[in-house]
Amino acid sequence: MSTNRSKEKYDSLARYYDQRWERYLEVTHKVAIDLLEPKGNDIILDASGGTGLLIERIISTIGDEGKFYLCDISKEMLDIAENRLIKFRNVYLSQQDVHHLDFDDSYFSKVLSASSFHYYTEPYEVLCNFHRILKHEGALIIVDWCSNSLHFKLFNILLRLLSKYHVNIYSSNELKSLIEKANFVVEKIINFKHGLWNLVGIRAIKQR
After folding, report:
1. How far apart are CA 15 and CA 4, in angstroms?
2. Exposure of 110 by Cβ count < 10 A (0-12 exposed, 13-18 middle, 19+ buried)?
3. What's the total number of domains in the chain?
4. What kind and span of H or E run contains 180?
5. Contacts for 163 with CB less than 8 Å, ≥ 6 apart
6. 92-106 burial, b if ≥16 CB within 10 A, otherwise e?
7. Fewest 10 Å CB contacts: which of 12, 17, 172, 184?
8. Of 28, 27, 92, which Cα lies nearest the Cα of 59?
């Protein structure tokens, strides 16, 4: 999916996104937070962080000691995130494409991508960006759709044919290989389900 198409899609979804996907977000955010293991002194980036709901949930667990950054390509999603998170002085929002992140090298202790990786047109490039901005032994957490099952492989093919927004759903092994290629060591993989949705959560550590 091109950057412009991604922006177009999520600008149109922004107003009802959290309500439409409420239960799905509860399930995937719980896994993401468990893998993230947030601590008070963390500097965390929520990449493609949308409406800020996940950051709000993280802050509720550890308070305002750390720093939280959220970037997203959609201005409409960021407007909702700003309204949601304006009361927190340690949250910073920016409109950015994950393929071209404007952050300093080795700045973040943790980077999180939740339910977005299947939209990235250049996934290896994105992972290299995440590697660049993470501190040594910083953690990368990815939670996303997963094509381990036959029905999700078929769903992936169907979406590629019918949706101008869709790029690719990866199996857990494919995602693991991509992450390792970008010089991460995969520490943990969780395969889980929500209804018919096959999902994967991965925690990886930056090496060199």
Report:
1. 19
2. buried
3. 1
4. helix 172-181
5. none
6. ebeebbbeebebeee
7. 12
8. 92
Amino acid at 35: L
Cα(33)–Cα(54) distance, rounded to whole angstroms? 8
Can you tell me which residue has the tokens 């929500």? 194
| Domain at 31, CATH number | 3.40.50.150
Cβ(62)–Cβ(40) below 8 Å: yes
pTM for this one? Answer: 0.91
CA distance 101 to 154: 33
Amino acid at 135: K
List the structure tokens of 60: 């509720």
Structural domain containing residue 11: 3-206
Pairing status of strand 197-206 against strand 134-145? antiparallel
Per-residue pLDDT of the chain (208 residues; tens, 9 = 90+): 345 555 556 555 656 677 777 999 999 999 999 999 999 889 999 999 999 999 999 997 777 789 999 999 999 989 999 999 999 999 999 999 999 999 999 999 999 999 999 989 999 999 999 999 999 999 999 999 999 988 888 988 888 887 776 789 999 999 999 999 999 999 999 999 999 899 999 999 998 7
